[in-house]
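For reproducibility, we list the full input for the glutamic acid complex.
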Amino acid sequence: MDLPKLAIAALGGTVSMQARHAGEGVIPTVSGESLLALVPELTNMARVTVETLGLMPSASLNFEFLLSVLSWANYQVEQGAVGVVITQGTDTLEETAAFFDYLWNHDAPLVLTGAMRSAGQVGADGPANLLDASRVALAKNSRRRGVQVVMGAEIHHGTTVRKTDSLALQAFSSPMVGPSGMLLEGTVHYLREPPRRNPLPLPQQTSQEIALLESTLSADSLLLENILELGYDGLVIAGFGAGHVSDQWADAVEKIAKKIPVIIATRTGSGPTAQSSYGFIGSEMDLIRRGALMAGFLCPRKARILLWLLVGGGRQDDLGVFLAQD
Ligand code: GLU
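The corresponding predicted structure, in tokenized form, follows.
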């Protein structure tokens, strides 16, 4: 039987980390080829192409590098891969998943995975996650779903998933909506219909900078007031509660929103921003009146990704449409 083509790329992260010497901290050293060797079952399921595109902690990934990974993944699908799997560090997985999902323009699935336990640790979860991610990438019911994150036998959609625990084995969740699916006895089950998707074209420029600031009690406004002078092209604020800031910040937001797009998200970690509930200075109604946009269900970090992509494509005027979708 002709096996389907599957493409796997390793970028680094804990899944690829090992200590060089006893007593030293783990660092990324394990190649994609070596990861694949830990999952021999895969060779009976697919013809696998594997590449090591990087060996980095995920904190040091950047947008330009992710665009090169995307172009590699696009090429793999054009060459007949039915799905693509990328292994990376989990620290920024929620951001890379959104980044890729906004740009992924194929019916074939792009699946991200990693590990919470490093490669040499007892009970390392990397091989099981790689096998599950590959099952998801090969499954027919994964088509037209965009980017999925597979960790601990759960499937999460790229625009909803978040790392909600720093060290726990089950560190990922999708607040409010839950996982989009799961692996049961090795088969892929989805709990929801495929999402409505509207992929963006590639950004024409990559030099834009989007700031992300968090509202905190009794905060000064020094950084906020200097956002324009510092040359930022957009601003996301992780606001209090349903998308609120202090009265002092509200004045600064109004000045900034006249020049660059400003998105107000919630710092709470779950739930949407409001639109029409509160009228005090710094409330969502006040901030909308002052020219800010509310993030809706998008978390601050994913809102920053969206804004970076839209500004990079000269499409910041479409921001409201994209925020309304979520
Ligand atoms: N816990 C992280 C990981 O799972 C640390 C390193 C990283 O994000 O690259 O990979």
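The domain at 5-190 is CATH 3.40.50.1170 (Rossmann fold). The pocket of glutamic acid is lined by residues 13-14, 57-58, 89-91, 114-116 (CB under 6 Å). Both points were considered when choosing residues for closer inspection.
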